[in-house]
Amino acid sequence: MEISIFGLGYVGCVSLGCLAKDGHKVIGVDISDIKVDLINSGKPAIIEKDIDIIIENQWKIKQISATKDYIFAVKNSEISIIAVGTPSTPTGHLNLDFIYRTAGNIGEGIAQKDTFHIISVRSTVMPGTNEKIGKIISEISGKKRNIDFAVVSNPEFLREGSAVKDFYNPAYTVLGSDNEFAIEKMKQLYHNVKAPFKVVDIKVAELIKYVNNSFHALKISFANEVGNICYKLGIDSHELMELFAEDRLLNVSKAYLKPGFAYGGSCLPKDLKGLNTIAHDNYINSPVLSSIEPSNTNQKDIVFSRILEMERQNDNNVQLSKLVGKNRSYIMEKLPHISSLLHENLFDLIEKSELIVITNNDNNIDEITIHCDKIIYDLAKVSSLMNHPNYFGISW
């Protein structure tokens, strides 16, 4: 394929070399004379392991070139990749000026083309950017989205120091678009990448990079706080965290990573409080660990406030016969009056309730879709209920 890449920084330069190595003819576009001249002399615009050799080799066989002439680049390519910077503003927002300016430049080029053009957004952008890019290109080019061009959100997951390796071995290749043809062309573009394709909603594709990196930051901070506690207690923190990471069922897995209601029970609150107490007693500041319980309380408050906003007086039931241990004793000792509100029969409960709050995916929950015309507030994402006319989910 013939590809143009806008932005010859870290992502753009690595993509330029790797896509050329995969057999594509690639034109790099940048406003910097220095970067353009480097590429046109067979040298990379960045310092990164292996990319210098790749750029030199692909330049020698004329698979890569660079230019400041964006219209030339668009006219001589079928896919344009946007890889320009999205720096933070002083208030923490993203500066998307380079993105929108690039979209305008591509629009000028598309205006002079008769063939279908695909725009791939590799830069890290906020949800909604894909749509705005399409509007800019349409306004400037006079062409129509999904008739003359398509926009694909295709976030990158490259790390400095291993960017070439990461290019060919990501966890997955994410594609978000409203055009099936563009999706298929992007799959062909990455035919040498050893990763499954994940075709998702456009806004999911736009947000995933933020979520990934925020979780990475959280993991680092969590591990460091555990390390600080271990240091004070004379424990080998690396041995401990190696053991922690060996648990692929709960610790390093999909477990507990589905949005929903707050955690409860006895073990999680007790043991979290215990670890925070150890940190406190050893004069260790652990802001991540100490913020977990307030965050959990906040989730409870969100649900409670939403229930109050629905202005319904009757609520879901708790089956006393199914309560055991501390849960049962707490109910009987602390909330003895609640026994008068409990129902053993699901259908009897539904008949008497104005609002049904679903807290778990019970086997007989499906029956509600047949017998219930009440408001359903779902905290567990029961798929069979989602088409109910009075359905609300906590975060979906």
* Most strands sheet: 8 strands, mixed
Lateral arrangement of strands in the main beta sheet? 3-2-1-4-5-6-7-8
CATH-assigned fold name of the largest domain = Rossmann fold
Low-confidence stretches: none
The level of helicity is: 40-55%
Order of helices and strands: EHEHHEHEHEHEHEHEHHHHHHEHEE
Tally of individual helices: 15
Question: How would you classify the helix and strand content by structural class?
Answer: alpha/beta
Shape: globular
Range of strand content: 5-15%
The Cα radius of gyration reads 27 Å
The CATH H-level homologous superfamily of the largest domain: NAD(P)-binding Rossmann-like Domain
Q: Main traits of this protein?
A:
Rossmann fold; 3-stranded parallel sheet; 396 residues; alpha/beta; single chain; 8-stranded mixed sheet; 12% strand; 3 domains; 11 strands
3D structure, described in words:
With 396 residues, this protein is α/β, with parallel strands linked by helices. Helix 1 (10-21) crosses helix 3. It has three domains: 2-200, 3-Layer(aba) Sandwich (Rossmann fold); 212-309, 3-Layer(aba) Sandwich (Rossmann fold); 320-393, no CATH class. It has helices at residues 10-21, 33-39, 51-60, 70-75, 97-110, 129-141, 163-168, 180-189, 202-233, 237-246, 267-281, 287-309, 325-334, 346-352, 367-371; strands at 2-6, 25-29, 64-67, 79-82, 117-121, 149-153, 173-177, 197-199, 355-358, 375-378, 391-393. The two termini are 39 Å apart. An eight-stranded mixed beta sheet has the order 3-2-1-4-5-6-7-8, with helices on both faces. Strands 9-10-11 form a three-stranded parallel beta sheet, with no helix packed on it. The chain is built from 15 helices and eleven strands. Helix 6 (129-141) links the parallel strand 5 and strand 6.
